[in-house]
Amino acid sequence: MNAAIKLTKDDAQIGYILKGYPRTSETFITNEIRLLEKMGVGLSIFSVKKLEGQKNHAMVKDITAPVTYLPQADALSETRFSKWLIDNVPKFSNSHAQLFKKKPLAYLKVFLECLIMSIQYRTGFFELPREVFVKEFLQAGFIANAAMESGNIQHFHAHFCHGATTIAMFASRLTGIPFSFTAHAKDIYLKELNPGNLLQKKMRRAEFAVTCTGANEWYLKQLAPKGAIIHKIYHGLDTKLFSNSDQEAADKQEEKLPVLLSVGRLVEKKGFDYLVKACAILKERGRIFQCQIVGGGDSDVTEKLVRLIKDLDVEDTVNLYGAVTQEELRDIFKQATVFALPCLVVDNGDRDGIPNVLVEAMSMRVPVISTDISGIPELIDNNVNGLLVPEKNAQAMADAIERLLMDSALRQQLVEAGRNRVCKDFDSQVTTLDLKDLFVSRLADRSEVLHECCAGH
């Protein structure tokens, strides 16, 4: 890397393409942006959706990067496509007209590719074209034109390798600006999100790809051996913010009523129904405790959990709470005796990578229990810094919870090892530095190429 290259907010910038910003459940992205800025990387954020009713974490106030919200396109499912086009194309027409004037050949090539993709990636031979690619092309054109007008965006980076990365790929083809992406969980494994060979195509065209677990890294390398270089970078955590003194942890163990905590979006892959069943088993055994499940999410999953809690007669034991900010969550962790998250692989392939709440709990010196799927064993070493049980097994989950509730010495052993594990490999100051180095090397290379081009003239 050229040491003379310095990145500032007025110089070379990364255009971050997100489906929604700031999203309460995506603290790892918000923290990543905050730390990259702190490390001197210039950023511009493009948010496809303008989110309403979100709880913002305190760190959002520290981010100074400009945020551009795209024109809000209607949902494709709410009307006929012809009507959708009439209602939504005008929102993007000015940007596309300007873009066509600047780069007509590139524009026509990408538009043709968009149409081909909409036919190529249909769900069946006799099915209608996939209209979402037209929507993403319109959105990409808006970003591409904005990037060309700004003149200082030299790289696009998208989070999640389905919609946001499709937009980044189109914007890259329209402008010649390279792109990369971070792949996380269901965006990797659900075929309907990247039908056919679409994910492989993105991997071949990207400058590089990042993913948050070794399990994901292995899968992506097998999927596209000749694709972009895959970099495993764990989601980092502010270990200073998520900390709990030894004395506070010790005092917590002396509480009369143990608190079993679980945190996450109320979606199927979190396995909360198995946690509720485990609580019912423990109640039958005469164990007295309180279980708190914290997090908003899917209304259908929430309704099923409410019914299950009632059917199993654990309404006096299990309580559901809505989404909270990081600051509120820290206080909740301080009251927890045990943290349990029974993650599972859904029938359609959806799964977690390494849930951030597990890292947060371990950093807060709360003993953790989870399942031995996906990237979770990369964080939790069974019987060393936490406990692992098989997925979809309420009996095993109940046994593990009971073991920790009854053994204070084991809890203390696990929490110290857990805190050490997080500080060693999941501190965001270290993990974000790895990402920053990737961006800096790309921007430096591109700056050198631009400098040589300009010198040639």
UniProtKB/TrEMBL annotation:
<keyword id="KW-0808">Transferase</keyword>
<dbReference type="Pfam" id="PF00534">
    <property type="entry name" value="Glycos_transf_1"/>
</dbReference>
<protein>
    <submittedName>
        <fullName>Amylovoran biosynthesis glycosyltransferase AmsK</fullName>
        <ecNumber>2.4.-.-</ecNumber>
    </submittedName>
</protein>
<dbReference type="InterPro" id="IPR001296">
    <property type="entry name" value="Glyco_trans_1"/>
</dbReference>
<dbReference type="InterPro" id="IPR050194">
    <property type="entry name" value="Glycosyltransferase_grp1"/>
</dbReference>
<dbReference type="GO" id="GO:0016757">
    <property type="term" value="F:glycosyltransferase activity"/>
</dbReference>
<keyword id="KW-0328">Glycosyltransferase</keyword>
<feature type="domain" description="Glycosyl transferase family 1">
    <location>
        <begin position="252"/>
        <end position="421"/>
    </location>
</feature>
